[in-house]
Amino acid sequence: MGIRLAESADRAAVEAIVQAAYEPWVRVIGAKPLPLGADYGELIAQGRVHVLENGGIDAVIVLDASEDVLLVENVAVRPDRQGRGLGRRLMAFAEFRARSLGLPALRLYTNEKMESNIGLYASLGYRETGREAIDGRHAVHMRKEL
To answer: What is the radius of gyration, based on Cα positions, of the chain?
Structure first.
């Protein structure tokens, strides 16, 4: 099982995983989660998408580095692979990536109704830093210092 940068040929698989992983949340939050509207062709071209594969692509993480923090924009795991630690593995990869870039912290945001995700991130050492409305959704901002 390895993690690598996504290539243009991976676009359909990346989009399918994101769609399958986030579709159940539409009913919970009452709107499409923001990752469902992203342009994955562009994100892949920018070198921001990494995939975790084991014979096929099982999970995706989208990262965006700035001067002082690595933003975890999106983590998606194929529904039939959830509960196996793949999301945690991608989050550990994000930490490794931030350290390798010399960044002191990671940040992310998630919908306040995605309580299981908030709990997971808290268990990984992320702390809530604020809340805000984004496009009619209510985001919880979280940060982890390295």
So the answer is: 14
Strands 57-65 and 70-77: antiparallel
Rounded to a whole number, what is the largest CA-CA distance in the chain? 39
**Short-list 61, 72, 78, CA closest to 19:** 78
Between CA 36 and CA 42, with CA 41 as vertex, the angle to 5 degrees is: 95
CB of 5 within 8 A of CB of 47? yes
Give CA angle at 50 (4, 140), nearest 5°: 150
Helices and strands in the chain: count of H runs, count of E runs: 4, 7
Entry pTM: 0.94
Q: Which residues contact 71 (CB under 8 A, 6 or more apart)?
A: 63, 64, 65, 106, 107, 108
pLDDT digits (tens, 9 = 90+) for 91-143: 999 999 999 999 999 999 999 999 989 999 999 999 999 999 877 789 999 99
Domains located in the chain, CATH noted? 2-145 (3.40.630.30)
